[in-house]
Amino acid sequence: xxxxxxxxxxxxxxxxxxxxxxxxxxxxxxxxxxxxxxxxxxxxxxxxxxxxxxxxxxxxxxxxxxxxxxxxxxxxxxxxxxxxxxxxxxxxxxxxxxxxxxxxxxxxxx
Length: 110
Known about the structure:
The chain is an all-alpha fold. It has one domain (32-108): Helix Hairpins (Orthogonal Bundle). Helix content is 79%, strand content 0%. It is built from six helices and no strands. The longest helix has 24 residues, at 33-56.
């Protein structure tokens, strides 16, 4: 999975300064961080709706997967805009392995 994220992050970084007329990533960046954050929020809501629909039998797991992919993509665009590597996020996730969720959460409040 990190290989896919590395490749995607590289494409996003490369398209950041492209023409907004030819690149979706460049068009988001040209509109500013608020537009990128709006897209992250929109995709997060779509993930929730797709998951609720899948749970109730109205939707499918494929719809959930596609919406999560959109959320990951837009999150990577946001991270790139902020100068944060997705590897920093993966490092945090790796450091949490072996901890219970409750222990990990409690450690953040100290």
